[in-house]
UniProtKB/TrEMBL annotation:
<dbReference type="InterPro" id="IPR002563">
    <property type="entry name" value="Flavin_Rdtase-like_dom"/>
</dbReference>
<dbReference type="GO" id="GO:0016646">
    <property type="term" value="F:oxidoreductase activity, acting on the CH-NH group of donors, NAD or NADP as acceptor"/>
</dbReference>
<dbReference type="InterPro" id="IPR012349">
    <property type="entry name" value="Split_barrel_FMN-bd"/>
</dbReference>
<dbReference type="GO" id="GO:0010181">
    <property type="term" value="F:FMN binding"/>
</dbReference>
<protein>
    <submittedName>
        <fullName>Flavin reductase family protein</fullName>
    </submittedName>
</protein>
<feature type="domain" description="Flavin reductase like">
    <location>
        <begin position="18"/>
        <end position="173"/>
    </location>
</feature>
<dbReference type="Pfam" id="PF01613">
    <property type="entry name" value="Flavin_Reduct"/>
</dbReference>
Amino acid sequence: MFYRPADGHGLPHNPFNAIVTPRPIGWISTRDAEGANNLAPYSFFNAVAYVPPQVMFASTSSKEDRGDTKDSVANIRETGVFCVNIVEYAMRDVMNLSSAMLPRETDEFEHAGITPAECSEIACSRVAAAPASLECRMTQIVRMEGESNFVVFGEVVGVHLRDDAIIDGRFDITTYQPLSRMGYRDYTVVREIFELSRPDD
């Protein structure tokens, strides 16, 4: 099968959603200029640089009460900061609750029963129980082709690691099993890892 996205694919569901998988989930916490918290998961998320450490996430829809985007991007525009919380398998249900399209004044921490903790380097809440949280200062917001498509880049200025995830000096993801997004409504969980040495190692 071959199709041009501009012409449509003819399938009941968009296959593009299932091609680039699995995708890590950035559970993005923000705070608006008035001090209201927001928390939302994004599967267009990844690390993009080591030195200095940098991450990105993309928001691809909008809300009537936020104009051309959603709460996360709108809050980052106001404050210039955000926190990426890593989602473990055990938190899949509360993560899903926080994905609801809620009014801008709704605190998703409260809505989903998630305990917040204050960040150390930025004025923002983080998910207290997350296996890792990355405090970020926004470096740029890039508008992409298409309606309401924005990519947010941030430099990581603070890192929280849950103590039980550090084994023999390494951050061991098998201790908490990261949740990842597949296509459609499908998710997967990482339970096994293996090593490959590069040819020039």
